[in-house]
Amino acid sequence: MSTQGTDAGAREIGVGLIGLGVVGGGVAQALIERKDYFARQVGASLVVRRAAVRDLSKPRTVDLPAGLLTTDVNDVLGDPSIDIIVEVIGGEEPAGSFIRAALQAGKHVVTANKELMAKSGPELLAEAHSRGLDIMFEASVGGGIPLIAPLRRDLLANRIASIRAIINGTTNYILTGLARTGAVGQALRAQGIEPPGGAGFAEALADAQRLGYAESDPTNDVEGYDAAYKLAIMATLGFRSRVRPSQIDTTGITKLHPRDFQYAQELGYVIKLLAIAERIDGGIVARVAPAFIPNTEPLAKVDGVYNAVQIEGDLTGTVLFQGRGAGAEPTSSAVVADLLDLSHAIVLGNRERKYWGPEGDLPVLGLEHLHTRYYVRVTVNDRPGVLAQIAQTLGDHSVSIAAVSQKEADSDAQTAELVIMTHRAKEGSMRTALRAIEALPVVNQVSSFLRVEG
């Protein structure tokens, strides 16, 4: 740390940026505009020393002196006046190599990189700790919602039972739009209620991209991978045991049908992309998938770009964190907060802090161990005795029906649509039963299968 006296205004902490896009630019702007305020809070001035970018000629949201910009990341990593490296380029590589190089150079790191921290976070944190350094990564999960710090500190005394989250703002924005339009919109209008905004999946996605909530390539969002990365980070911290993204069963939202939203509403549910990790006998079960939630649940009321994480601890009971989970401003806020925390630790001389890493070895179990309820939509031949055959098949696999109703009927094709809600059952049994149902001559197809969580 550069020291030029004893007062806060004379002491400086050098900051190096890797990436100066919307988030990096927002961080740099905050450090410039609020320099005096931050200096009073931390006890030293935070000064941007260098920023690595891909293209020097690209227009930027922040006006930095030209001499601070470089296309060579080594100019940032090797600058002895830099105490903290901020990485906001995302992805596993080259970001991982840059962060390792920063640690080898004796620099603290702040990152918003969910993929890297999900896949390699414990190893990186252990390396940082061995060098008397720290990696802060609040912005990797939940945008501006404080989640990592509570899991690393405030909830440390608890034995966490479950983490249930709506943790991807893009998909939540899209699902909110789909729930308010299409078949559901028609049902609402029939009741004299005008649904707000939106249209189909493509338009809802386009809106999310236009507003900056979704990337130009939305695959990681709509297929659930982004949520799985974030769940892996939270579960690893919450359960003190390693949970990898590859161990999380992941299903996206692209195969949802408008009828599912309509039937969800009729039955008193909403559809959300849920990321859930829970402790059960023998280990942890983790999954990301669209699911029915009773509309009385707090998570059911989290709409648009908002995220929410519900954590169940043995001492705290249920705690709920909620806020904007997508967008440059919330992410920049979390990055700056980590910068301030690290800077204050440097000023106090507390460079080596406790490493709260994985301590246990709970196995991550397959979904066949999961117990929950299910929603099934089946297209069948429209003739007597069909329901009895389906009920018998479910019963043969220890799955009981809680409710069933006949929906759309096609007189030309002589088919009908059945909507089935089950009681709690083992997922392994449920999936075996569904395969047997699809093999019945009277069944055309199992059109939809979603868990009922809550």
Any idea what the CATH architecture of the largest domain is?
2-Layer Sandwich
Number of strands: 18
Which stretches are poorly predicted, pLDDT < 50 over at least 5 residues? Answer: 191-199
CATH topology of the largest domain: Dihydrodipicolinate Reductase, domain 2
Shape by Cα distribution: elongated
The secondary-structure class comes to: alpha/beta
- Integer tally of domains: 3
| Top-tier CATH class of the largest domain | Alpha Beta
Query: Could you give me the name of the CATH homologous superfamily of the largest domain?
Result: Dihydrodipicolinate Reductase, domain 2
Instruction: Note the beta-strand portion.
Output: 25-35%
The number of helical runs is 15
Distance between the termini: 50 Å
> Mean pLDDT, nearest integer?
89
Biggest sheet features = 12 strands, mixed
Assign a percent range to the helix content.
Answer: 25-40%
Radius of gyration: 25 Å
Which descriptors would you attach to this protein?
Alpha-Beta Plaits, Dihydrodipicolinate Reductase, domain 2, alpha/beta, single chain
Describe the structure.
By secondary structure, the protein is an alpha/beta fold. The protein folds into three domains: 12-149 and 328-347, 3-Layer(aba) Sandwich (Rossmann fold); 151-325, Dihydrodipicolinate Reductase, domain 2 (2-Layer Sandwich), CATH 3.30.360; 370-452, 2-Layer Sandwich (Alpha-Beta Plaits), CATH 3.30.70.260. The protein is built from 15 helices and 18 strands. It has helices spanning 22-33, 35-42, 73-77, 95-104, 114-130, 148-154, 169-179, 182-190, 201-210, 219-222, 225-239, 258-267, 328-347, 386-396, 427-438, and strands spanning 12-18, 45-52, 69-70, 84-87, 108-111, 135-136, 160-166, 249-250, 269-280, 283-294, 306-313, 317-324, 364-365, 371-381, 401-410, 415-422, 425-426, 443-452. The strands form two sheets. Strands 7, 8, 9, 10, 11, 12, 13, 14, 15, 16, 17 and 18 form a twelve-stranded mixed β-sheet that branches. A six-stranded parallel β-sheet has the order 3-2-1-4-5-6, with helices on both faces. The model is unreliable at 191-199 (pLDDT under 50).
